[in-house]
C-alpha cells in the first residue's frame, strides 16, 4: 500500500474539499509534479485527515505535512519522462475524453490494464 496526499494551505479549501469528498475508492488517479507524470494509482481506501488519528501514532509522523491522505495501489510508474500538456492545478478530473491530457492518461490506463490482465490480476 502507498499513500498520496495534500498539505493544508490557507486558500486551499476548495481543493481540500475535492480531495476529501470527490476521490472515490477504486478510482484511478494520475499523480503528477507540474507537467511530469509520476504514477498511475488505484484508490483503495477513503480520504482522511491524519490529525484525527494523531493520538494513535508515534510522536513525529513521517511526511506529516501531508495532512490529508488517501491509501492507493501503485499500478504503474512513469519511468520514461512522460508528461501532460496541462500541468496546472492540483486536482483535475478527466471530464473531456477527447482532451489531449485525458487521452494521454486514458492510453496509459489501457496499457496498464493489459499488463495486469497478462499477470492475472
User: What is the straight-line distance between the termini?
Assistant: 16 Å
> Can you tell me the overall shape?
globular
Give the overall pLDDT as a whole number. 85
The arrangement of helices and strands along the chain is EHEEEEH
Fraction in beta strands: 25-35%
Please give the radius of gyration in angstroms. 15 Å
Largest sheet: 5 strands, antiparallel
User: How many strand segments?
Assistant: 5
Number of helices in the DSSP assignment: 2
Which structural class is indicated by helix and strand composition? alpha+beta
Tell me what you see in this structure.
- This protein has 121 residues and is of the alpha+beta class.
- It has one domain (2-118).
- It has 2 helices and 5 strands, in the order βαββββα.
- It has helices at 13-22, 100-118; strands at 2-6, 28-33, 36-43, 48-49, 68-77.
- Strands 1, 2, 3, 4 and 5 form a 5-stranded antiparallel beta sheet that branches.
- A hairpin with a 2-residue loop joins strand 2 (28-33) and strand 3.
- It is globular, with a radius of gyration of 15 Å.
Q: What is the structure about, briefly put?
A:
This protein is α+β, with helices and mostly antiparallel strands and 121 residues long.
Provide the fold topology.
Layout: E1 2-6, H1 13-22, E2 28-33, E3 36-43, E4 48-49, E5 68-77, H2 100-118
Antiparallel strand pairs: 1-5, 2-3, 3-5, 4-5
